[in-house]
Amino acid sequence: MIKNYVKYFLPLSIVLFSTLTSCKRVFKEDNFVAYFGGEVLNPQEKYVLFLKDDEVIDTIYLDKNNRFMHKFDSLAPGLYSFKHNPEYQYVYFDKNDSLMVRVNTFDFDNSVVFCGRGDEKNNFLMELYLKNEADKDKMYDNFDKDVKSFIKNIDSSFAIRKTFYLKRKAEIGWDENFDVVAKACLDFHHITKKEIYPYAHQFRTGENIRTKLPSNYYEHRKEVDFENALLTNYSPFIKYVSVMLNNVALQKDHLDLNENSLENNIEKLNITDTLIKNQKVKNVVLNNVAMMYLLEDQNMYNNQKFIERYLQLTTDKENKKEITEIYNSVQNLKVGNRLPKIELVDTSYKPLDVNSIINKPTVLFFWTSHAESHFAASHRKVMELQTKYPDYEFIAINVNDNVANWKNALKKYNFEGIKELHASDFETARKQWVITKIHRIIILNADGTIKNGFANLFDVNFELNLK
After folding, report:
1. DSSP 375-397
2. Which end of the chain, N or C, is surrounded by fewer C-beta atoms within 10 Å?
3. How many secondary structure helices (H) and strands (E) does the chain include?
4. Are strands 78-84 and 47-52 parallel, antiparallel or unpaired?
5. 358-407 pLDDT, tens per residue?
6. pTM above 0.85, yes or no
């Protein structure tokens, strides 16, 4: 992944830093001045957002050459993120770091490379992230395996990445603060798989494996610092806490095995309230539980009961507002309502309102090039359904992508006979149609009213919606 810094960054550094003679500049360390700059190939917006804990600190505009540069007079050391819609990645700053990043939106994560003071740590994080992502692609089949085989597989995978981590730690010599982030990236990916396994195995095979787990299977929980606010908005931590809560809730004998049930999710809220004392961390976790639940269980009475408990526990006003907005959006997608208008374009880039083209029962399904396996699987499934249900129209809506990625994906697979649309403004679509899970399906009646706003294409009972 690490590329030739001189080839990519020396011309950029000359333009952006007249005082730099190379990417490795020695800075005075009498303040917290830091620099962040770089270049965006094939930009989709005219700016880059710089964030801390999901809050925008600065909007940094691209120049005519698609380059950007910003000086921070005071930037506290720690984990930040930068975003160029719809993509984002993390960046870690130590005192007086000066970092440049080069990204290509056509292959965002794989193209990210840093240069400058602090580059080695950040390039390490990107390499480890990509190793984790590659490992994740192989993860699901392992959930079908017996306990011994599963543990052997994930331990072997973890050992390889740990060796890489220890090697780079020795070479770079980073401090304890950065090591918190580096270890989190390493460890949470591993123990997340351990938490998912018991219930994923049961869902996939029908076998309750819990009684066969070793007595020390959950020892890793004792090592997790649930109060560490430094990791509050770090996705590996949030992902782990989410699946751990789900696993603990499903262990309760009196609870439904359906992880999206009202009882399970109120249990998750209650566990969070007991487990986590740091209110900042607690609020983020509560918000995540609420977000996931509201997108799954569309029983309006259940939603109201859940919201009542959530509002009792959270103290974050912004989170309350966001969850309340989602709750209201869900209410707007009730059976019999019409879809709120969002910006869509067809393959000729012609704008249209989906409500204006509905003249027969219709299934809307969603995809993104960032989930290629789902993109292919959903289109193949729909092509089968088209044959079985000729009275239905099936419309694919691309989300969370730029136009180039959308068109390239369609060209690569060439699925014929399916109407393809693209959501021009994904944020509006996400909020108005509550699209945060890619397997989501919306089924419309011939008059454009909603028949089922929250179906799942891969649910074994999905076809009952079409009869």
Report:
1. HHHHHHHHHHHHHH-TTSEEEEE
2. C
3. 14, 15
4. antiparallel
5. 999 999 999 988 777 789 889 999 999 999 999 999 999 999 888 888 99
6. no
